[in-house]
Write a structure and sequence with these properties.
This protein is an alpha/beta fold. 45% of the residues lie in helices and 14% in strands. The protein has four domains: 10-130, Response regulator (Rossmann fold); 141-318, 3-Layer(aba) Sandwich (Rossmann fold), CATH 3.40.50.300; 322-394, Helicase, Ruva Protein, domain 3 (Orthogonal Bundle); 418-478, Homeodomain-like (Arc Repressor Mutant, subunit A, Orthogonal Bundle), CATH 1.10.10.
Length: 494
């Protein structure tokens, strides 16, 4: 009979062993627990990222399963709040220690005793609402190469990092989609770095930068005499990437005739050089990226359906910067340090005003635009001018858009003054509303700032900055009973 606290709990069982699954399903049925099953780490990752997330996860390590620990690490990185119980045939002390380090809450050795397993499961289910926050395994900034890094300081990017690590282990094509400048190339390099191909070549070919004939010769190479000027045989990017990885950037810009040939490479792992008569076998991981709407590209015939369906079995979506604003302070600091080192300049400080404006700007150019902003600020050194430029970009353009023609609008001094006054009124109203919302959240949580940040759906760091910006301090009645961490003697937040 199930305890009231655990009845109807939802669990995910990750196992490839039919007998283990049968035993666990029987135990679940006897206790009125709802069990879902997954046979692989990728399938488990999809489950824990879904809206119907499990309350507990049972990860079964089969004999000789070298990927089990890696799966544990992926799942902890994506959902650190879900308790994980590891089931193993090995009683090895080192493996137990490693499992604990990677975040397993319990480690049970087979054969499983039903009563023991039920006791362990109930203990975790009864305490699931009191689980402390779990630190994420790994660093926020991961250096991929001298000039490339991956930031995973937000939940959405930690999920993306886990997806990349999963995909790195299987030799399948991957389609990476996202806005221009969002970091699609970085994700491709990350997949390559985490794969067994990392010791071999990684090359990128921009399909939009070359005309069709030149793109074909760059990709496949050519034989001597294949065309006028072909004085010697030249290997293409596919050959140069043997056993490595190639990224075909802006794949939708590739001519459809060339897409047919690429489809044959994916299918047969062979290709012909231009002017060649003998097929060349190739072992290369092919990744592709695009920043356009896939449905529109298919409808317009820019992307062949057969190539798309072969490439898109595994698709990675890179979110724009405006959907991960909590990473902006980290990115600003990293870009500042890297660029200062590159140009031989002293890094400039990033004031609260800079952080505030940057976190409230939409960044249509994503990481590329953010890096350019830091570069200009570093070189020019005028914080006011840098911020004015961002604020000017954020304002709607009048009369100069795609339909606005080239006519200039002459605005009188009186109109400018009215516009400035209106802008001030809007900013004041926004500030008042923002302060009221923060005050209400802090009062509701009795100044538990982490809980208030979750209630407001902002990062903890952003809330601390806003509390300082509005000179807010906890009410006196909380001080003797419930001291608030991080508050100085004058009541201001550190």
């Amino acid at each position: 009979m199930a305890d009231n606290g655990t009845e109807s709990a939802r669990m995910l069982v990750v196992s490839r062993d039919p007998s283990a699954l049968q035993q666990l399903l029987s135990i679940g049925k006897a206790n009125s627990w709802r069990l879902q099953t997954a046979e692989s780490g990728w399938e488990a990752l999809e489950w824990v990222q879904s809206e119907v997330r499990p309350d507990l996860l049972l990860l079964d390590l089969a004999r000789g399963d070298a990927d089990g620990m890696r799966t544990l690490q992926w799942l902890r990185r994506v959902r650190p709040d879900i308790p994980i119980i590891l089931l193993s045939y090995s009683d090895d002390a080192e493996q137990k220690q490693e499992a604990t380090r990677l975040g397993a809450q319990d480690y049970l050795v087979r054969p499983l005793h039903q009563r023991q397993l039920e006791t362990v499961i109930r203990r975790h289910l009864n305490h699931r609402d009191q689980q402390p926050e779990v630190a994420v395994v790994g660093e926020d900034i991961e250096q991929i190469s001298d000039d490339t890094f991956f930031v995973s300081a937000s939940p959405v990017m930690r999920k993306l990092r886990a997806q990349a690590e999963l995909l790195a282990q299987v030799n399948v094509p991957v389609l990476i989609v996202g806005e221009s400048g969002s970091g699609k190339g970085v994700v491709a390099r990350l997949i390559h770095k985490l794969s067994v191909r990392s010791d071999f070549q990684f090359l990128k070919l921009n399909c939009a930068a070359l005309p069709g004939e030149l793109l074909e010769s760059e990709l496949f190479g050519y034989e001597r005499g294949a065309f006028t000027g072909a004085l010697r045989t030249k290997a293409g990017k596919l050959e140069l990437c043997e056993k490595g990885t190639i990224l075909l950037d802006e794949i939708s810009e590739m001519p459809t005739s060339l897409q047919v040939k690429l489809q044959h490479v994916l299918q047969d792992e062979q290709f012909f050089r231009l002017g060649g008569e003998s097929p060349i076998d190739v072992d290369v991981r092919i990744l592709a990226s695009t920043n356009i709407n896939i449905d529109h590209a298919l409808a317009a015939g820019k992307l062949r359906e057969d190539l798309y369906y072969r490439m898109s079995a595994f698709t990675v979506h890179v979110p724009p910067l405006r959907q991960r604003t909590e990473e902006i302070p980290l990115l600003l600091g990293h870009f500042m340090r890297q660029l200062a080192k590159h140009y031989g300049l002293a890094p400039r400080s990033l004031s609260p005003a800079v952080l505030d404006v940057c976190q409230n700007y939409s960044w249509p150019g994503n990481l590329r635009e953010l890096e350019n902003f830091v570069k200009r600020y570093l070189v020019i050194g005028d914080e006011g001018a840098a911020l004015e430029e961002l604020e000017r970009k954020a304002e709607p353009q009048n009369g100069n858009g795609a339909l606005g023609g080239t006519k200039k609008t002459i605005v009188s001094a009186e109109s400018e003054e009215r516009a400035s006054s209106l802008k001030s009124l809007v900013q004041d109203a926004k500030g008042t509303a923002e302060r009221s919302a923060i005050t209400a959240a802090l009062e509701e949580t009795r100044w538990n700032r982490k809980a208030a940040a979750r209630l407001l759906k902002v990062s903890y760091r952003t809330l601390l900055y806003k509390i300082e910006q509005y000179h807010m301090s906890p009410p006196a009645y909380l001080s003797p009973l419930q001291p608030v961490t991080g508050v100085k003697g004058n009541g201001h937040v550190r």
